[in-house]
């Protein structure tokens, strides 16, 4: 059992005496997403159909393939987030059961799907809801930013990864579940690990509710961090990187040599040199990477290539941001 009920409670809907949330430690977001699909398949049968946005992480369709599920249904995400109207149409036309996967913190731009609308559609259509919050889940720690995850509490399962907005070394993934009873399908018996007489004597059951045995101590570093900083301490770190991202976006927006994609939702900023071709943008990124001067991501949105800065260091200073922009400008062909 994880040592932080505030985080696992993010996957809880209406509290009741019969429904208790829980969570498992995983190696990261990919494994958590795979487990979420496995639990859905075991609860609803192999005929369950994954429905996700075009903005979803690649691990979701891959998990469906690994588990022998049907080809997932991909719902358009024209503005970078899942379109509720298109989701409603898909759930209406496709035979169930359905597993809808929403995203809170997309890989490309750090956007958050409209969770309240998606949750309402899942209720209306009787669909199961999974939210991949591997990136955005850390907003739960912040009093200022947690409302951006409104609707998360309606999910049946939630992927979290404290390797991102939790500042943990890998592995630090979690799968939170609204009802701990759904984990019973993971139970397995191996006499050398969980013999009946050992369990009756009070020894821990290493196979009772998890696929993992030897890596379970991964929870220790998370527990120590929470003990040392608490939710409020982690919340301050989250707010610092989100604030720095907004400062960087303002810097880009005010610079005539650059183009800003959009104000950041979390801590990801997409930008590109103005009037540069996609080939030039790609070349700048590779040059800075191979020279060891800056590590920038890349994202293709609306048919154009963007440089991606995901700010995760709370100690980043305004002059660091200005230096990064100057570095990109100085390496862009005139």
From TrEMBL:
Protein family according to the UniProt entry: Belongs to the group II decarboxylase family.
Required cofactor names: pyridoxal 5'-phosphate
Keywords, ordered alphabetically: Decarboxylase, Lyase, Pyridoxal phosphate
GO terms of molecular function: aromatic-L-amino-acid decarboxylase activity; pyridoxal phosphate binding
Lyase in keyword set: yes
Listed InterPro entries: PyrdxlP-dep_de-COase (IPR002129), PyrdxlP-dep_Trfase (IPR015424), PyrdxlP-dep_Trfase_major (IPR015421), PyrdxlP-dep_Trfase_small (IPR015422)
UniProt key word Lyase: yes
Protein name: Amino acid decarboxylase
Originating species: Streptomyces viridochromogenes
GO terms (BP aspect): carboxylic acid metabolic process
């Amino acid at each position: 059992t994880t040592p932080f009920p505030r985080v696992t409670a993010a996957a809880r809907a209406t509290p009741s005496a019969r429904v208790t949330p829980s969570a498992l430690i995983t190696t990261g977001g990919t494994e958590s997403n795979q487990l979420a699909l496995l639990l859905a398949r075991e609860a609803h049968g192999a005929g369950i159909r994954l429905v996700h946005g075009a903005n979803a992480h690649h691990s979701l369709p891959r998990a469906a393939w690994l588990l022998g599920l049907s080809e997932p249904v991909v719902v358009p995400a024209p503005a970078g987030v899942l379109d509720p109207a298109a989701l409603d149409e898909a759930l209406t036309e496709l035979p169930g059961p359905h597993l809808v996967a929403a995203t809170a913190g997309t890989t490309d731009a750090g956007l958050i799907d409209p969770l309240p609308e998606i949750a309402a559609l899942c209720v209306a259509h009787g669909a199961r809801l999974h939210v991949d919050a591997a990136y955005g889940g850390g907003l739960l720690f912040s009093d200022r930013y947690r409302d951006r995850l409104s609707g998360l509490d309606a999910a049946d399962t939630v992927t979290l990864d404290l390797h991102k907005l939790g500042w943990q070394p890998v592995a630090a993934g979690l799968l939170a579940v609204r009802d701990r009873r759904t984990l019973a399908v993971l139970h397995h018996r191996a006499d050398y690990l969980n013999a009946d007489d050992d369990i009756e004597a009070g020894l821990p059951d290493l196979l009772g509710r998890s696929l993992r045995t030897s890596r379970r101590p991964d929870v220790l570093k998370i527990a120590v961090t929470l003990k040392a900083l608490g939710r409020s301490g982690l919340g301050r770190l989250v707010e610092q990187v989100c604030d720095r991202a907004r400062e960087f976006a303002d810097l880009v927006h005010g610079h005539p040599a650059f183009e800003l994609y959009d104000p950041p939702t979390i801590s990801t900023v997409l930008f590109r040199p103005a009037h540069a071709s996609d080939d030039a943008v790609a070349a700048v990124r590779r040059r800075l990477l191979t020279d060891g001067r800056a590590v920038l991501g890349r994202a293709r949105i609306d048919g154009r290539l963007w440089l991606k800065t995901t700010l995760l260091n709370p100690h980043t200073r305004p002059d660091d941001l200005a230096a990064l922009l100057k570095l990109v400008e100085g390496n862009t062909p005139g």
